[in-house]
Amino acid sequence: MAIQTGAAGKRWDPVTFEVDADRISQYASAIGEENPVHHDAEAAKAAGFRDQVAPPMFAVVYSGPALGPAILDPEVGMNVATMVHGGQEFVWGEPVCAGDEITTEVTCQSIDERDGKGFYVFQSVSRNQDGQETVRGTWTDIVRGV
Amino acid sequence: MMSYATGDSLPELRVTPDAGLTKRYADASGDPNPIHFDEEFAKSVGLPGCILHGLYSMAQVARAHTDAADGDPRSLKRLEVQFRGMGFPEQEIVVTSTVKDVADGRIVTETVAAQGESRIIRNASAELELG
């Protein structure tokens, strides 16, 4: 059965995430990041940040929720039971700090079939409350046995 | 600040995620998939046991880079990875990065994250700004 590719180009409604200090600390601790700028507002300000600052990969925390509606969209038609995360790219801009409100918009960049697998590529663009881009993500999901 | 030339290696990062890590990472990252922290569930879907989140392993690659730039989170400009072999808790991850290009205060690296002979992230490409 050929896979559906009609959702390529589709864009979903933006999702907003409020960044709080405890979530930054919790994430930083989970990945083993002990730099005080990720755990303490004063240390972060002394290093030139607006407030307690997130590690770069915190991007998955604030932009990830916007991917949910795309992955589960029937028009995309992914079989999530046989899906694996095949690849990921992030390009970072303005750092993300406690108190920021980050809005992420997701687009389906492409859907292709190769070697019996479906390759679903989504792009996310995240901006803070001042309109500055914080991260641009390219998410590649691979579905086996399509 | 260290300066790097093409062919140099970044300081190697070694980390051994403990048995409880995948649950802490799931809670912190917001990924609820039980294959990462529920041993019984993981085995029921044919996995040998709980597996690491690919994005946790990617975060170790990111950390190897920011560590090389005095821990400054602003230093990492871009990171691209491919997830391949499965990673497991309680096994050491070794992150090895090689400088492929140097220009305008930035370096481009190629990175492998491995557990023993198993490369869980390969062909990772990063751009890092140094001071």
Describe the fold and architecture:
The complex is a heterodimer of chains A (146) and B (131). Helices cover 17% and strands 34% of the residues of chain A. Chain A has a 5-stranded antiparallel β-sheet. Chain A has a domain at 15-19 and 63-143: Roll (Thiol Ester Dehydrase, Chain A), CATH 3.10.129. The longest helix of chain A has 10 residues, at 21-30. Chain A is of the alpha+beta class. Chain A has 4 helices and 5 strands. Chain B has a domain at 13-18 and 54-129: Thiol Ester Dehydrase, Chain A. Helices cover 22% and strands 34% of the residues of chain B. A 5-stranded antiparallel β-sheet of chain B has the order 1-3-4-5-2, with helices on one face. The radius of gyration of chain B is 16 Å and the shape is elongated. Strand 2 (83-92) of chain A pairs antiparallel with strand 2 (76-83) of chain B, so a sheet runs across the interface.
What's the CATH superfamily of one domain in chain B, by name? Answer: Hotdog Thioesterase
Q: Work out the strand percent of chain B.
A: 25-35%
H/E series of chain A: EHHHHEEEE
How many strand segments of chain B? 5
Shape of chain B: elongated
Q: How far is it from the N-terminal to the C-terminal residue of chain A, by CA?
A: 7 Å
The CATH architecture category of one domain in chain A equals Roll
Question: Which percent bin holds the helix content of chain A?
Answer: 10-25%
This entry's quaternary arrangement is heterodimer
Q: How many helices of chain A does DSSP assign?
A: 4
Helical content band of chain B: 10-25%
Average pLDDT level of chain A: 95
| First-last Cα distance of chain B | 7 Å
Binned strand content of chain A:
25-35%
Name the overall outline of chain A.
Answer: elongated
> So, CATH architecture of one domain in chain B?
Roll
Q: If interface size is counted as residues with C-beta under 8 Å from the partner's C-beta, which chains form the largest one? A: A-B, 32 and 30 residues
If you compute it from the alpha carbons, what radius of gyration of chain A comes out, rounded to the nearest whole angstrom? 17 Å
Widest sheet of chain B: strand order?
1-3-4-5-2
